[in-house]
Amino acid sequence: MLMDKYKWQTISFTCDISTEFGEYTRDFYRGTCNEFAAALTSQQGYKIFSQGANLSKADERISALQDAKLYSRVIVVISHMDYVRQVLLTASQLNMTTPEYDAAKVFESLFIVTLARLPATTKTLALFDAIEHVAKDSYNLSSPVTESGLLYGTSTYSALHVTAQTVGEAIQLNKSLSDGSRLVKLMHNRTFATPCGVCEMNHNGDLESIYAIVGMSQQTKNFEVYLYTHEGKVLAVKSLEQAEKTAN
């Protein structure tokens, strides 16, 4: 780990509190910051500085970077990719990077882990279409569903069905619903059928799916899929179709 190699002991976390992409996204960033901070704090020797900032605003990006720099040379930013790029450019403008270390080089060394295919089915898309109509007719909102919105929507919709099935089983077995930890454990090592497709939960209660590792190509300067993973294993394939066949 680089922290150990260079004997860095302090990390600055900057978590985006902007609600531009919704309160769910903001809460997700905040939760991620807290989880990382807790994990690193539990390891002896690490000190954590954590702050929230609205990274959609230029003045707050500047202030957040200046504050983070006071505490650590290791700065972790958790935000939407659009604002991560803005933060990197701001850092360059503040002379926090060397001339040869610009945003392009940062993205060349960046890897993104994401779901390989959006878990959207005909039923899911029909639901979102109905929501769009209600939003337009009742609230005069006509914004189309974005790719990220579709991802959050399908994930939430799947989670709702998984939770409902688990609660139903607990009631049938006369188990208490007040013990959240025990209720969640009922989801481990299970497969659930939802309108968004099959949800496979592993022994930790995490969703098993095919994930893509995406990075910027030094030749084309575009983000491309480098490899696919499933259940923690790298799939030696070159296409998503092959990955799905291998995983199944």
UniProtKB/TrEMBL annotation:
One Pfam entry name: ANF_receptor
UniProt keyword annotation of Membrane present: yes
Keywords: Membrane, Transmembrane, Transmembrane helix
Compartment(s): Membrane
Main subcellular location: membrane
Start and end residues of each Receptor ligand binding region domain: 2-217
InterPro entries in the cross-refs: ANF_lig-bd_rcpt, Peripla_BP_I
Keyword Secreted: no
GO CC field: membrane
Protein name (record): Receptor ligand binding region domain-containing protein
